[in-house]
Description:
With 287 residues, this protein is α/β, with parallel strands linked by helices. It has helices at residues 2-26, 64-73, 94-103, 115-122, 124-127, 130-137, 182-186, 206-212, and strands spanning 30-39, 46-51, 77-81, 109-112, 143-146, 149-153, 158-163, 195-200, 216-219, 228-229, 233-234, 249-253, 256-260, 277-286. The chain contains 8 helices and 14 strands.
Amino acid sequence: MQSMLGTFFLIMILVAAALLAVGIIDGNRFVTVREEFALPGLSRECRFVLISDLHNKVYGNKNDKVISAVQKIDPDFIVVAGDLVTSQIREDMTPGIELMNALSQKYRIYYGLGNHESKMQKDAAYFGDKFDRLMLAVSHENMRVLQNESVDLPEYNIRLTGLDLDLDYFAHFRIRKMADGYLRRTLPDVDQGKCNILIAHNPDYFEDYAGWGAQLVLSGHVHGGIMRLPFVGGVIAPSYKFFPKYDGGVFRSGRSVMLLGRGLGSHTLPFRFFNPAELYEVVLKPV
C-alpha cells in the first residue's frame, strides 16, 4: 500500500513538474499565425499585423524578436488591440513604449485601448499621470490612438474604428449585458460605402459589434484562455470566467467575422499552458 501511494505521489510530482515546464516555455515564446479574410467594401488587398495584450512582455533584447517577425511580414500597417502595458502602479512601461516607437519608425500603427489603459486613465487618483505619460511616450507621426473615434484608410477604402469600452463591461465572473444603443452613442457611425473594421479589446460583445456594423472585429483580452485543452479550448479568461465562449482565433456572426488574438504577454501569473503567445499576419482581400 505504501509503495502504491509513493508511486502515485511520484507520478503527481512529475505531472506537476511537466505542467510547470510547459507553462514556463509557452509563457516565453510566441508563434506567428496567418489569417486571410475576404471583406466587402475593400478596394484592394492589404496586409497588417495584429498585436494584442503585450503587457510589457519582452522577447529577446528590447523585443527584437517581435520586431524581426513584423519586418519579415512587412505589413502595410499594424493594429494594436489593447493592453500594451499592465495597470500596475510600479510597473515600468518601457518595453511596450520601446516596441511601439521602434515599429512606428517604419509602419503606421493604429492603437485601440484595452481595459488596462482605460483603468489608468479613469483612475488618475491612483495612477496619477501614468496614462498621459504612456500616450506622450508613444506619440509619433505614424502612431494613431483611436479612442472611440474612426480613421479612414482611403487607399483600401477602410474605415477603422477603436472602441474604448467602459470598464463596467469588464466585470469579473460574469458578462454584463450591453445597454441598448450603447455602441451607437459611443462610436461614430459606420460608413456603408466602406469596409468597416472595429478594434474592440473585449470579445464578449461580438454580436453587439456585428450589430453595430463591423465587417471585421479585432479583439484580445482573453489570452487564449491561459490553458488550452484538446477539444475544449481555453480554460479560463483573465476575468475568471471558465471555458470562455470566445477564447482565441476566428469567430463568425452573420456577415461579420472576429479575429481574437491570444496575446503576446500575460499579467499576474506569467504562465501559458499549451497556449503559446501569438502575433498575427492578417491578409484582407476584396470580395
